[in-house]
Amino acid sequence: MPLTQIIKVAIQALRTNKTRSLLTMLGVIIGVSSVILLVSVGSGLQKYITDQLEGVGSNLLIIMPGKLDLKTMGSSGGKDIASSMLNSKLELKDAQNLQSGSEYIKAVVPGVAGQAILKYNEQKVSSEAVGLTANFSDVVNSPLAAGDYFTDGDDKIGKKVVILGSDVAKNLFGFDDPIGQKVVLSDERFTVVGVLKNKGVGSTSTSDQVVIPLTTAERLFNQTKMSAIYAQATSSDKMDLAISEAQMILENRLQPDDFTILTQKEILSTVSSILGVLTAALGGIAAISLLVGGIGIMNIMLVSVTERTREIGLRKALGATPNIILTQFLIESVILSVGGGLIGILIGGAGSLALSKAIPSAVTPWSVLLAFGVSVGVGIVFGVMPARRAAKLNPIEALRYE
Amino acid sequence: MILSVQHVSKVYSLGEEEVRALDDVSLEIKKSEFVSIVGPSGSGKSTLMHIIGLLDSPTSGRVVLEDRDVTTLSEQKLARLRNEYIGFVFQQFNLLSKTSAIENVELPMIYGGVSTNEREKRAVEMLELVGLGERLQSHPNQLSGGQQQRVAIARALVMNPAIVLADEPTGNLDSKTGEDIMALFHKLNDSGHTIILVTHNHAVAAQAHRQIHIQDGKVVH
Predict the structure, then answer these.
(1) Chain A residues within 8 A (CB-CB) of chain B?
(2) Which tops the pLDDT comparison, A363 or B83?
(3) Nearest residue to A86 (alpha-carbon basis) of A115, A65, A101, A62
(4) How confident is the model at residue A202, as a pLDDT?
(5) In terms of residue numbers, what domain contains A132?
(6) In the predicted model, what is the mean pLDDT of chain A?
(7) What's the number of domains chain A is made of?
(8) Which candidate from B53, B98, B110 shows the least CB-CB separation from A9?
(9) Which residues of B, range 40-79, sit inside 8 Å of A by Cβ?
(10) What's the ipTM?
(11) Chain A closest CA to B121's CA: distance in Å?
(12) What is the interface size between A and B, counted as CB pairs within 8 Å?
């Protein structure tokens, strides 16, 4: 009996009990769609963040106060950085030493950060104000959407000028032009000279921040210690040399535990691998749910075989060989799992697409292939036992079954 | 000679005891005969029917179907032979539920490898023969007991079998409907079909042209 015929018989059998077939597929549908959704969110985020970080600057050294370990930073993260900044021992003279005393460092930008409330008319925005030297855009990639950077001269006199992050500008000014307008920043009047382009995500995002001259920030926040020092190496292949040189220079004045030198590359690879692990873990959880879906199929098929004992006896009496019965039931469970897999792929794909408006997510072809392959495998593996049971039924006893 | 059962025994061993369901049974059925096998419950008539229907093999003896020795064939081969040579009619009809009459009748032909067009043609022909030409698409739950049994009979005929083997075909029907079904069997026999009817009911058995009485696993005269 040709395979196509057995497939037709199997389909017919599944259609006589549509509700049960659909409910059985549900487990696989949920499993597959969640695999695809979670993996696509995970890899989408991964790609997005690495893209963003790559835009920051590949020659960048970030000198942070205190001893930070990138690997443990994830869990207590913000807290570590915040407390390090509060107890910072970095000073302006460290930045000056790095600038003047090094061969491999091209430019240095010290920074002082603090929370500030900005007000314009009725609007109020709370934002992180970062005080940087005027050359900051040479070192930290910060293109402007409007206006100008403040000058070295502005910095020297501690002028009250501010460059707004894109979200801050939008929240305070809406569609009005902020350039030249006066805002109240930490209860002092500042003039807006520029607006940053929308760029970056999470910790590298500048859209919620505002930039003011370093001297102004020192006075405003009553702070002589630096929150961070950014430095640019002369070229990316000189990075290692720049790092050891910076370490040497800083250790002239500071203890080794007083600072950490981070490179954008390290941050990138740590973030990437954390996300990679996360994606794999999510995928694993989803795969478990797929397994559960497979067990569900096996369960239902076993029940189905028992319920259809008389029918199986009849089919055998009418001429179905054990092989034909085995194949029929195996095909039934494969149809259920593959059908569920296809629907799951569609739902997962559609979900990823919808989600991509809010969170970066990209459907990866390998996850689709994997999910599909696994659902075929699940159908076969979990269908074998019920199918064999059906095939082995004795037709005489089966026909007598109540 | 359609069927020859030669000194057939069926013995089951239950632990240390031996149960002889059939003991040295011999019989012969000729083409176009209408034969009944009759006996009380436990007489071995069901066992004999299973062996005749190629659903079971004897412990000893020979079974010859249309010159073919079928005694020791594998289940695989027996299934194929059942499909082509035996047309079953059961007491409980055994139609596929939620499936139309015509699809039910087509089922043996699917296993028999008959082409789609030919299948439909033959199914319609047989359903018309049993008087259900108007009910091709009906499902079993839309049919009366008698109608369901007619569908089953049409299904039994569709592969043009050597033997129509009926197990208590009127057992689940009222007497009037039972008479109609028996009339149908007579009609089929008149047109040449070989019919073996297994029953414990002597009135039904008497309607056949020849009766084989069975008791305690043996044929009695």
Answers:
(1) 1-2, 5, 8-9, 12, 16-17, 310-311, 314-324, 395-396, 399
(2) B83
(3) A65
(4) 47
(5) 108-233
(6) 85
(7) 2
(8) B110
(9) 50, 53, 55-56, 75-76, 79
(10) 0.95
(11) 18
(12) 59
Structural domain span for residue B98: 3-220
pLDDT confidence of residue A364: 78
Region B13-28: mean pLDDT is: 90
Q: Which residues pair with B215 in a beta bridge?
A: B218
The pLDDT score that the predictor gives to residue B111 is 93
Q: How far apart are CA A378 and CA A382, in angstroms?
A: 6
Q: Is the pLDDT of residue B177 over 90?
A: yes
A324 and A388 assigned to the same domain: yes
Domain total of chain B: 1
Residue A178 lies in a domain: yes
Looking at the fold, whether A145 and A207 belong to one and the same domain comes out as: yes
Same domain, A125 and A28: no
Residue A73's pLDDT is 56
**A222 and A329 together in one domain:** no
pLDDT tens digit string along B62-110? 999 998 999 999 999 999 999 999 999 999 999 998 899 999 999 999 9
* Cα gap A188→B99, rounded to integer Å: 84
Q: How far is B90 from chain A (nearest CA, A)?
A: 9
Note whether B107 contacts A318, CB cutoff 8 Å. yes
Asked if B94's CB is within 8 angstroms of A315's CB, the reply is: no
- From first CA to last CA, the distance across chain A in angstroms is 29
- Do A316 and B50 make contact, defined as CB atoms within 8 angstroms? no
Residue A373 has pLDDT above 60, yes or no: yes
**Domain co-membership, A298 together with A221:** no
In terms of domains, do A113 and A187 share one? yes
Q: Do A319 and B83 touch (CB under 8 A)?
A: yes
**H-helix segments, A193-263:** 214-220, 239-251
Q: Which of A325, A329, A339 is nearest to A380 (CA)?
A: A329
Kindly tell me the burial class for residue A257, based on how many C-beta atoms sit within 10 Å of its own C-beta (0-12, 13-18, 19 or more).
exposed
The pLDDT of A44-48, averaged and rounded, is 78
Integer Cα distance of A243 and A306 in angstroms? 72
| Any A CB within 8 A of B113 CB | yes
Phi, psi angles (nearest 5°) of residue A202: 60, -125
Distance (Å) from the C-alpha of residue A274 to the closest C-alpha of chain B?
Answer: 54
* Per-residue model confidence as pLDDT tens digits over A288-311: 887 888 888 898 889 989 999 999
The answer to whether residue B138 neighbours chain A at the CB level (below 8 Å) is no
Disruptive mutation site among B103, B107, B148, B167 for chain A (greatest number of A CBs within 10 Å): B107
